[in-house]
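User
Please review the sequence:
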Amino acid sequence: MLPARENSSGRSGRSWLDGALARFEADNNASVAPTNSLLERIVPDPALHARLINTLSMLEHMGSHKIMATQHSAGIDRPTLKHVAEEAQHAWFMKHQAEKCAGREMKYAPGDLLAPASARMYFQRLEALIVRSLGSRRDTDAPYLYMSMVVEFRALWFYRLYEKCLKRAGHAMSLKRLIGEERHHLTDMANRLERSGDLSDARAYRFLDGERQLYLGLLRALQRATA
């Protein structure tokens, strides 16, 4: 399970998030090789690569839409507005890169995406798992914070592998700024959950484990789509 969370007076030098990230890396170690293999097959092929980037744009757009759909009360704060703005910017950035790669306009339509049904299902099933598990807490900010935090764990993990693959291929596209913003979002979500008293090791691990199973399903779908 995740490292036990200590209170501020007993916290060790490594924060909860540092420990959770280390555990996430260990739990997902077996997925590194197949993910790298997928990326190594896609990146040199402009048509496939454009569809992958456009799929990532769609997922970023879904993330920004989910925030806007759930965080619309009069008390919405600046960090949440910044979050939704940056997720929308990530969707725009990926769309722009996809169209550069393809040399044409691209839509969120099946022919311009990779495993679109599985990509959408990944997001929808993760949200359903979190909302269902939170029960009475679903009417608070906890679903938004947990959903965002769990997605950022995966985004940070995947984009780091993707950035390394792009470098190996000598591709001009850089994800450095995006990775920095995803890390900031992850830290912000964890801190806000902790301040609200909603951060639970057991709950976070259950969500991260559920997400890992959903990612494996998406990975298999992407492998089939690019075979």
